[in-house]
Amino acid sequence: MSDATRILVVDDDPKIRTVVRRGLAYEGYRVVEAASGEEGLEKAREHLPDLVILDVMMPGIDGLEVTRRLRAARGEVAILMLTARDEIKDRVEGLETGADDYLVKPFNFEELLARVRALLRRHATPAGEILRFADLEFDVDAREAHRSGRQIELTTTEYNLLLLFMRHPRKVLTRDVIMEHVWAYDFEGESNVLEVYVRYLRGKLEAAGEARLLHTVRGAGYVLKE
Amino acid sequence: MSDATRILVVDDDPKIRTVVRRGLAYEGYRVVEAASGEEGLEKAREHLPDLVILDVMMPGIDGLEVTRRLRAARGEVAILMLTARDEIKDRVEGLETGADDYLVKPFNFEELLARVRALLRRHATPAGEILRFADLEFDVDAREAHRSGRQIELTTTEYNLLLLFMRHPRKVLTRDVIMEHVWAYDFEGESNVLEVYVRYLRGKLEAAGEARLLHTVRGAGYVLKE
DNA sequence: GGGTCTTCTCAGGCGGCGCTCATCTGGTCC
DNA sequence: GGACCAGATGAGCGCCGCCTGAGAAGACCC
Fold first, then answer.
1. What sign for the dihedral angle of Cα B12, B16, B21, B27?
2. B196 touches strand C (CB under 7 A)
3. How far apart are CA A195 and CA A155, in angstroms?
4. Pick from A17, A9, A81, A13: which is nearest to A44 by CA?
5. Do residues B61 and B79 make contact, with C-beta atoms less than 8 angstroms apart?
6. Which member of A83, A138, A170, B22 has the lowest number of beta carbons within 10 Å of its beta carbon?
């Protein structure tokens, strides 16, 4: 814990910074923010992050230039570039300039987290993760689950949702937290997607009449527990 | 907690109180002020704040003494001490007396806010916290309690009410304090919701014939004790 | 273009939960 | 012992939070 992985988030949009910071902090990373390219370079020098998440489009020094300077200064840092949907040409340029990966906005948090983990793993140690809870097995790499010998296929959203619960068993996750993690960061307004997907998941997890694992906590959210 | 975080500001300088109060209120905290050590202790008893911001130098009961008494009163309250620049020796004494952090005056508000956030984060709910009292366990994350091996499910209001008692064991909580914390009422209208929910809680906590933990203090309020 | 899979919206339904109310109980004071 | 009042109790009601089934829209594949 004392030597947690440090991640620097550079984006001029405070909303994105906040969502990313909160999410990553929740996952146990130490997060530093910067609102501009200049500040980003400064914070990078100051905190020596393991990974930099970097928006391409920023006033002043933009993401590409920051990448160039980071590479010139210190080669080992991993760089994840964020690019708006219609800036796809930037992808190529971004990767050529020295970014290790890129992600198109808007993205949902689990996607970001997956990239972050992948990048950090590449820089560190690999491992085929299998999460277990009660009689449920969850193979992160294979993207499938097993219960009472049965193989359970999951769609992407179901996978993200179940992954979140498997990472935080016995903990009540509020609707807000779940929405922020599994659905797009800029999701606004009322929707009952969450209920619907909880229903899908329950349907698959309890297909053979097994006991309920995903419980409703009225007025709060949901928990994974026996 | 169900309602906003409460912060008590104790300083004999009205200017500082005003600045701090406005700023914190703007950030969404509920702020209570006190102009002296005596008043501070009184307000603390009355409002059960999560954090106390406390000036060291005050006529009458000073900050150090207030800290001592707050700690003696079994409060798990976080304390942030304010000290003038040339009272640096007070820092040491302040921390030894039981303050959780200190801040040198003059300070800018962002500095204060950063400390406040850090303290609340550290102090509030370290993930996986389990509160215990007698043979009762209260799992904050899972939103459930256990007694004599039995799992006790709680509704949101029951949870908020029990949480309040678990945070202040053996302390008599008046009806007003409880109403203010759990229902956010200004106790205007008459209602016996509190009695009803005390009954619900007792029902669940003593379902297997266990001894009473939630006691009535006639004319005052309720206590959690053996 | 047709078929399939996935994501998400929408309308309707149901029951849990928060709360009120009327009545009962017991402690306290004279 | 009687009167009074704070709190306890049981019953019940209405809302809204969540569940459910159906289907539209879009992506992908052949």
1. negative
2. yes
3. 16
4. A9
5. no
6. B22
pLDDT score of B121: 67
Residue of chain A whose Cα is closest to the Cα of B156:
A219
Q: What global pTM score does this model have?
A: 0.70
B167 CB-near residues (< 8 Å, 6+ apart): B76, B131
* Amino acid letter, B10: V
CB-contacted nucleotides of strand C (7 Å): 5-11, 16-22, 27-28
Is the pLDDT reported for residue B74 higher than 70? Answer: no
Q: Do B10 and B37 form a contact (C-beta atoms < 8 A)? A: yes
B92 to each of B83, B95, B103, B197, how far by Cα in Å? 11, 5, 12, 45
DSSP structural state of residue A172: P
Q: Provide, as residue numbers in chain A, all residues whose Cβ is less than 8 Å from the Cβ of B152.
A: none
CB atoms within 10 A of CB A123: 14
- Alpha-carbon distance B184 to B176, whole Å? 10
Q: How far apart are the first and last CA of chain B?
A: 24
State phi, psi for B35 to the nearest 5 degrees: -100, -5
pLDDT along chain A (226 residues), means of 10: 69 88 85 89 78 87 85 73 65 64 79 85 60 88 86 92 89 88 68 94 92 94 94
Q: Are B122 and B101 in contact (CB under 8 A)?
A: no
Per DSSP bridges, beta strands B78-84 and B51-55 are parallel
Burial class of residue B202 in the structure, from the number of CB atoms within 10 Å of its CB (0-12 exposed, 13-18 middle, 19+ buried): middle
CB B166 within 8 A of CB B133: yes
Helix then strand then coil, in percent of chain B rounded to 5, is: 40, 25, 35
In angstroms, what CA-CA distances link B117 with A52, B34, B110?
24, 21, 10
For the record, the structure tokens of A88 come out as: 């796809």
- Which chain B residues touch A171 with a CB distance below 8 Å? 127-128, 141-142
Q: Which residues pair with A147 in a beta bridge?
A: A136, A150
Interval B161-173: pLDDT, tens = 999 999 888 989 9
